[in-house]
Design brief:
Order of helices and strands: EHHEHHEHEHHEEHHEEHEHEEEEEH
CATH superfamily: Glycosidases
Oligomer: single chain
Helix content: 25-40%
Number of helices: 12
Largest sheet: 8 strands, parallel, barrel
CATH class: Alpha Beta
CATH architecture: Alpha-Beta Barrel
Number of strands: 14
Structural class: alpha/beta
Distance between the termini: 12 Å
Number of domains: 1
Length: 380
């Protein structure tokens, strides 16, 4: 399997970096809440110890641009230095649900400010390292548009504006890519969204069956818009779709208007078939950008994902990595409960974190299993 993503390791660690405002007005900052901002060097070093040398991490726009077009990179520079010191390859999220408070996300000003912000980030990274930079311009465009523009559960809590928001976020991703490429022509871009399968109930009407199928098709909207296959007037081109990152969790398949379904359900679509559909549609390098589960099922879930990835690779689908997300336990968005979903727990005052041994052992088993499937030129 030829490695087209350029990832340094097959397994990646993903640091939860959401920074949106809740309905009660509180701004989330999961990088700070997990103390990853204080101990990022130690966190990166820990990952190297288990054979992981590529990660997903976040840039917090709301901290950097506190006034229009005035930038303070003190929240980012220590992370860049830590990545350089530990030789950690980072895919940086520019927009992970959060933006400066003075901006209306639906406005043209939002696009201009995001483009300028992306350009300044590229300059800073160019000054820090000559490595090829990796970015996720806008995380989960289709999902965020649904949650924030249609369903009203994420800021700005809109309803009936999902398609409008989706188009706006696609524009934002494209202007960010253009800005970054003007500074760093070699930059790579990951476009991340969940992959899903929605089915109709056995007694569903034809209209409900069609609605389920339409919901499933909508998972491709952002990628289609970016590549110019959908809504061509947005300006999408194949050049905007570089690396496809798919997010997949246990709840990514469900009955339309009903409950989630798991792998034991005959209506469940095996994950390798979903991966095949994505690769067949775009012929772009693909990796699992997020996957994980809480509590004792963590090793079991990783084993299932790896089984499906191995099946996909053996069928000729070049799946080039699996990002364990989140890699750290974290406080829940809404209730701040302690979510045991990561490989490591909260840290003490020295930055030490307890490791969840069953998951660590499963990662090691799966690394040894998958390594022989990769060509010598591909990642380990």
């Amino acid at each position: 399997m030829q490695n087209e993503c350029g990832l340094r390791s097959f397994f990646l660690g993903g640091f939860e970096c959401s920074s949106h405002r809740r309905r009660d007005g509180k701004r989330l900052d999961l990088i700070a809440a997990t103390q990853h901002d204080r101990f990022c060097e130690a966190d990166y070093a820990r990952l190297h110890e288990i054979g992981v040398s590529s990660v997903r991490d976040g840039i917090r726009w709301h901290l950097i641009e506190t006034c229009p077009h005035r930038y303070d990179f003190s929240s980012l520079l220590p992370m860049l230095k830590a990545a350089r010191k530990t030789s950690m390859q980072v895919i940086w999220d520019l927009f992970h649900y959060g933006w400066p408070d003075d901006l209306d996300i639906f406005s043209s000003e939002f696009l201009g400010r995001f483009a300028a912000f992306a350009r300044e980030v590229a300059h800073v990274m160019h000054n820090e390292s000559d490595n090829v930079p990796y970015f996720c311009p806008v995380n989960e465009i289709s999902f965020f548009a649904w949650g924030a523009g249609d369903f009203g559960v994420l800021n700005p809590f809109a309803r009936g504006r999902g398609q409008e928001l989706k188009a706006q976020l696609v524009r934002a991703a494209m202007v960010a890519i253009d800005s970054i490429r003007s500074v760093a022509p070699r930059a790579r871009f990951v476009q991340v969204d969940p992959v899903i399968n929605v089915v109709g109930a056995p007694d569903a009407s034809e209209a409900e069956q069609n609605a389920a199928a339409a919901h499933t098709r909508a998972q491709f909207d952002a990628w289609d818009m970016l590549s110019g296959r959908l809504w061509a007037d947005l300006g999408g081109m194949p050049e905007y779709l570089d690396i496809v990152g798919v997010n997949y969790y246990v709840h990514n398949q469900w009955v339309y208007g009903g409950k989630f379904i798991e792998a034991s359900d005959p209506r469940y679509k095996p994950f390798h078939q979903i991966l095949s559909a994505v690769y067949s549609r775009y012929s772009r390098p693909v990796f699992i950008a997020e996957t994980g589960i809480e509590d004792e099922r963590r090793p079991e879930w990783l084993r299932y994902i790896c089984d499906e990835v191995v099946e996909a690779i053996q069928r000729g689908i070049p799946v080039e990595g699996i990002c364990l997300y989140p890699i750290l336990n974290y406080p829940g968005w809404d209730d701040e409960r302690h979510c045991h979903a990561g490989l490591w727990d909260s840290c003490n005052g020295s930055g030490d974190r307890d490791i969840y041994r069953p998951l660590a052992e499963e990662i090691n088993r799966q690394r040894q299993r998958i390594q022989p499937l990769l060509l010598p030129s591909a990642v380990a």
